[in-house]
Amino acid sequence: MFGKPEDVDGDCNARLFLGDDYGDNVCTIRCALAPNHSGLHEERFERGKGPVIIQWEVDEREKIDEEEDEN
Fold first, then answer.
1. Local structure of 63: helix, strand or coil
2. CA-CA distances (angstroms) from residue 2 to 28, 46, 47, 49, 52?
3. Which domain range does residue 26 map to?
4. Dihedral pair phi/psi, residue 54, rounded to 5°
5. Residues 38-68: pLDDT tens digits?
6. Is the full-model pTM beyond 0.70?
């Protein structure tokens, strides 16, 4: 998939943007918890022998909105 990921109805959809060590590729993680949940954002998936759980605090879409407001 290329471009901005689509929101999923019934999910929080907060974003976390990750770059690789060389800065030439980007990965977007999307929170799959319910909208307006409390606590950390979270994405879970299965990889190899068990689950991978990624948790984060800030929705990076908010950071982009703040930067746009400054300009």
1. helix
2. 11, 22, 22, 28, 23
3. 15-70
4. -115, 130
5. 999 999 988 888 998 999 998 888 866 666 6
6. no
Torsion sign across C-alpha atoms 23, 27, 33, 35: positive
Domain-embedded: residue 52: yes
Which token pair is 54? Answer: 């990624």
**What tokens does 55 get?**
């948790």
Which one is predicted more confidently, 37 or 4?
Answer: 37
Burial of 14 (0-12, 13-18, 19+ CB in 10 A): buried
| pLDDT above 80 (res 70) | no
In a domain? residue 31: yes
